[in-house]
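The protein record passed on below.

***
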Amino acid sequence: MKLFQAMAYFISLVAVLVSLIAFSVTKHHVYLYMGLGSVLLIAIYTGYFRRRIRKQFNIRVSISELAFSNKVFKQITAY
């Protein structure tokens, strides 16, 4: 599964780079739109797997959210 996911990221990254290089050479906007669409696709793909892993391992709070909540809690109790 990890190999498939890594291949998908690599192919998506190559597609974005090729689209942006093609846009810079030809100045046709369709290549820019393909690059932006690929970035959006990567974001959706990454979010899907992140949500799936959080659900599989029953992760409720991320580390950054926990650190932020502790920081806010310390500020509130300091007053």
Residues 29-56 form the longest helix (28 residues). The two ends are 50 Å apart (CA to CA).
